[in-house]
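This week, work through this protein record:
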Amino acid sequence: MALIRTRCSRGNDDRIKAFIHSGTSYLIRSFGVGEITGHLRRFGDDYGRAFRDKIDPPMEQMWTNVYINRDAVAHRTGVQMTLRDLKDHYEKSRL
């Protein structure tokens, strides 16, 4: 979300900047690989493809594990990973 806000704040129109800043908070609520790809495609299909091409299945699964456990903590439903696993999966899922 910060990247989108930074990119959109390069212009000179304060009203457009305010709209983009408020809109990104409303629009971007999920951070699964598919959702991130979809958001990037709004800038152009090449953005979505470039991102998707860098994600291999093990990396996507590790990110999904981190994301699911983040939701479990946020909603107090119980975590399935150890802190060591969380750190490992996070590091291996980064681009």
Remarks:
- The chain has two domains: 1-30, 57-93.
